[in-house]
C-alpha cells in the first residue's frame, strides 16, 4: 500500500531474486514454454535478443535524462509532467515522470508530422485531438492529448506558444522521431510476446491478445520515471557510502500492479525495481540495461483466467545515483470487452472474472489509491 508520504522501508523483509531470462532468438516452442512458466510463477521476466535497436534505446534514454535535467520551473509547465504526486488520489513517491501517448495514432502523428497541413488552425486541431482521445471520459487523457499537441506544435512552430516558449526547449518534446521509433519497437515486441503467450497457452487465435494493442484505438501509454538519489534522513547511519544499501532507500513508485495488458519496462543500470511474490516480502531484481523486463498486467491476468499473475511491484530510490525507467503499457481500446478465450475456461478452472470493458476498469483504477487491489472488484 502506498502511504500518503514516502516512508522509511528499512523494516521490511527483503529477498533478492533472479528473474527468468527469455532469449527470443531461441527455438520457438522452448520460448513459448519459458514465457508461460515465467508468467505463472513470477508475472515478470527479462527478454534478451528482443530486436529493439540499441541505438533507439540509447537515444530514448538520452532524451529522458536531458528532459529531467531541465529546471523544475520549465518541467512543471508541461501538463504531462508530474513530480511526487502519483495519480489523483493522494499517492506520493520520490519520483518525477513524464507521460506520453503510445497509441498507433500518436506514433503515426509523430512520424508524419510533416504531413500536418501547414495552415491548420490551432484550436481546431487541438479540439480534434482532444476529441479523439476521449477527453470527456478521463482527465489523464487530457494529459496525453496535450502532449500530442505540444509535439505537433513544436514541430510546426504553430501551437507551441500555447504553453510558453520555455516548454519548447525540452528535447523530448520535439524529439518525436526518437519517441516514435522507441514506441514502435516496444509495441512490436509486446505484440510478439503476446502471440508467443497465446501459442504457449494453446489459444487457437494466436492474435487474441496482441490484436488489442495493435488496434488503432489502443489506449497504450509510455511513462518515463526518474528517481533522483535521496539520502534517507531517517537512517541513523549517515555515511554516504556508494553501496546500494537498503537502509538508504525510500519508496519512489509505490506498491501496485499494472492495470493494462502487458508492460515492457527498461531501466538504466541502477537497481530499484522490487516485486512481491509473497505478501510482506519484497524481491529486488537486478537491472539489465540490455534486456527488457516484461510483466503481466491485470487485464492479462483476467484474459488468462488467472493462469498468469499480475504481480505487485514498486521502485525504490537510493542515495548515490539517478535511476530512470521507461515503461510501455500495452492497453486495449476503451470499449474492448475483457474476457478470457474459451480455451482458458475448463471444469477444473471455472471462469474467475466478470466481463467488463477497459473503460470500466480504467475508471475504477483511477478512482482508487495506487496500492488497492482493484482486480478483486471484478471477481465473480
Ligand atoms: O521504475 C520502475 O522500475 C517501475 C515503474 C512502474 O512500476 C510503473 O511505472 O508502473
Ligand atoms: Fe508498474
What does the model show?
The chain is globular and about 55 Å long. The two termini are 24 Å apart. The protein has one domain (13-113, 176-378): Sandwich (Jelly Rolls), CATH 2.60.120. With 380 residues, it is α+β, with helices and mostly antiparallel strands. 32% of the residues lie in helices and 21% in strands. Strands 2-3-11-8-13-6-5-4 form an 8-stranded mixed β-sheet. A 5-stranded mixed β-sheet has the order 1-10-9-12-7, with no helix packed on it. A two-stranded antiparallel ribbon has the order 14-15. Bound molecules: 2-oxoglutaric acid and fe (ii) ion. The site of fe (ii) ion has 3 residues, from loops.
Give structural attributes:
disordered N terminus; about 20% strand; binds fe (ii) ion; 5-stranded mixed sheet; about 375 residues; Jelly Rolls; binds 2-oxoglutaric acid; alpha+beta
Summarize the structure.
The protein has 380 residues and is of the alpha+beta class.
